[in-house]
Amino acid sequence: MLKLMDFNLIKPNNLSFPRKCLINFLMGSLSVLSLEPMNFFVVLFFTIPIYIFNFDALNDEKNFHSRKIFFIKCFLLGMSFGYGFYFFSLYWINISLLIEIELYYLLLLPSLLFVPLALSLFYGLSTLLLAFFYPRNITRIFIVAIAWTISEYLRISVTDFPWAQIGHSLIHINTILQIISIFGELFLTTLTVIIFSLPLILILNKSPELKFISLLPTLFVLLGIITFGLSRPGLLGGKTDNIEINIIQPNIKQTDKWDRELAQVNLNKLISATNEMLNNKEATLGKRYFIWPETATPYLINENLQITSDLAKNMSSKDYLLVGSLRREGGAVNNQSIYNSLFMIDWRNKIIGKYDKNKLVPFGEYLPFSHLLSKLGFLNFEQLSGNFSNGQGGMTVLDDDLIIPHVLICYEIIFSEFLHSYNQKTNFILNVTNDAWFGRSSGPYQHFSMSILRAVERGLPVVRVANTGISGVIDPFGRVIIKSKLNTEYYKKSMLPQKTDITFYTKYGYNPLFSILLICFLLIYYSNKKLISKNKER
Questions:
Q1: How far is CA 511 from CA 184, 198, 423, 516, in A?
Q2: Handedness of CA 421, 427, 429, 430 (dihedral sign)
């Protein structure tokens, strides 16, 4: 009779605990290569197994440590991997601080060192969870996947920062990606750990029969996922709505964007490009959207509508201009609320729609604990360029017959659970952004790739318009229709891809995923408990 316990365990040499941590740090660092812009996901076949090997070796030593010491070592071993991963995947945050270094210079070193440290705590939590239950057979791969997924969910819930997930390595494998329309983005983390741990199944099991038995359930699930992925895109066959999207990416440097002397020059660039696209009316019978990026102009559009008056003269009743701009409320300067907003303007040069950004960027649009830091002398709170108020809800429009986009400004697009109430009249997700803050780093590439996730999850096409960065159109299956290069002027039109039916994930969120993970954990737990009992009887 075959037993799950019958396998050859491959362990690292007798390394000291600091060396194990160093190896995990290096594995976490190398794993960053699997993300944009490198997309070298093959590296995970090396880094994730070694991550598990290291924990195997530590688990074998637990009888030589007190319970408390063992738990601490488990936690630190996970943190080591996480620190390497976040240190190199989130370096671009510090590039944005350099733009206004005179204000944020004291935050550079804390941001570089402590942001990865804080996020790595959740990788430590993952290995801490494993310390309580870690089967000594091949099923531990699935337990690692479950623990990793749970820790990612907790990380996102606590920090409100879902950037840089290990599952993002699968974004560009379109056939696998379709499954998130059912289970959501986090399921990619589960799949990533399982898929890239498959070599362990081949290496660790001594018996060829046992290798087959271990591989069979995993391959069966993967085959089901791939079959679903291959069949789903064919449902619509690339159909489009009769809606024209016009992307206006002016490529204005962040250092020039708020320069008063260049304000009119920058505005003229936007107006000139828009007028040229307005005059191109070939074969368009439906509505046309002309979209400017986030905070496209330093002027308050709703208080300076003469800015767009000349454009309105060239617009028809089916044309709409969407402009990213700041907005203020209140009387006295000290009591004013400032919003990062998007306005919709029609052919009458009238504002018929408005959206205020809900989720603000820490350090960019608001500074956590700013008043405290100001009192401690770390910065002058009054000089901060960003001190915005939170908007509430989705886009409001005056025209009930108008198909409106589901607007997400800047990094709001990175949140899988942050779409306002699903509106059947919404045909697409519109993400306006300004990635000039991040230069030629990995930040803009990763930002764009997360737009692909939102398209598949929701079954809605995504239109992305950046001041500079990467603009484009993505269909509801995650296929990129058009895409700009980084840091270039880009003026392009595209017909809007047709949306799918409402997705399973949109209806039920993460509840099905975590229900399945719980069932899998219980099955593995009780099967291993029963197996151990039988072995003791023998």
A1: 10, 27, 21, 9
A2: negative
Q: Within a 13 Å sphere around the CA of 297, how many CA atoms are in the beta-carbon half?
A: 26
Count of Cβ atoms closer than 10 Å to residue 319 Cβ: 21
How confident is the model over 2-23, as pLDDT tens digits? 344 333 444 555 688 999 999 9
Residue 537, classified by CB atoms within 10 Å of its CB into exposed (0-12), middle (13-18) or buried (19+), is exposed
| Residue 284 DSSP SS3 | coil
Say if residue 435 is exposed, middle or buried (CB neighbours under 10 Å; 0-12, 13-18, 19+): buried
d(CA 301, CA 336): 17
Q: What secondary structure does DSSP assign to 115-155, as a single string? A: HHHHHHHHHHHHHHHHHH---SSTTHHHHHHHHHHHHHHHH
**Global pTM value:** 0.91
Distance CA 154, CA 162 (A): 10
Domain boundaries, the chain: 17-231, 235-358+393-502
Detail the DSSP E strand segments found in 185-308: 240-249, 287-291
For residue 354, the surrounding DSSP H or E stretch is strand 351-356
Burial 16-51 (b: 16+ CB within 10 A, else e): ebeebbebbbebbbbbbbbbbeebebebbeebbbbb
The two three-digit tokens of residue 359, written as one number: 């989720």
State which amino acid sits at residue 205. N
Convert 25-51 into a string of H (helix), E (strand) and C (coil): HHHHHHHHHHCCCCCCHHHHHHHHHHH
Q: What is the pLDDT of residue 368?
A: 60
Tokens 């405290």, located at residue: 372
Do 361 and 411 touch, CB atoms closer than 8 A? Answer: yes
Measure the CA–CA gap between 419 and 425, rounded to whole angstroms: 14
Superfamily of domain 235-358+393-502: Carbon-nitrogen hydrolase (3.60.110.10)
- What span, in angstroms and rounded, lies between the C-alpha atoms of 19 and 35? 26
Dig out the tokens for 231 from the structure: 């069949």
Phi, psi of 304 (to 5 degrees): -140, 55
Question: Shortest CA distance to 410 belongs to which of 464, 472, 366?
Answer: 464
What is d(CA 513, CA 519) in angstroms, rounded to the nearest whole number?
10
The neighbour count for residue 222, using CB atoms within 10 Å, is: 16
175-209, pLDDT tens digit by residue?
A: 999 999 999 999 999 999 999 988 776 777 666 76
Q: Is the dihedral of CA 295, 299, 301, 306 positive or negative?
A: negative
Q: 451, 404 in Cβ contact below 8 A?
A: no
